[in-house]
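>> received
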Amino acid sequence: MAWIVLVISGLLETAWAVALDRSAGFSRLVPSLVFGVALVLSMAGLAYALREIPVGTGYAVWVGIGAVGTALVGMLALHESASLPRIVCLLLVVAGVVGLKVFH
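>> returned
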């Protein structure tokens, strides 16, 4: 269960990062509210998962999911660069996250 919560928390990290960008410095209400709710839920899920998963592994997986998810949203929805080197680097992050899970 801790791993499922950790993955969901990583996805929520993506949500709050994108909402933070869309909030325009907290000047837009809805994205600012989405940011706050997603941030609290993401942190609460991480805290829950860390009761069973070592902090180094849990935090690295959480950040990895959030970073890759945010980069993918940027590339797919926000018209950021989707260059081959950037995609390869994201795949390396995914490989690291998978490795941390496998060797946990």
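>> The chain has a mean pLDDT of 96.
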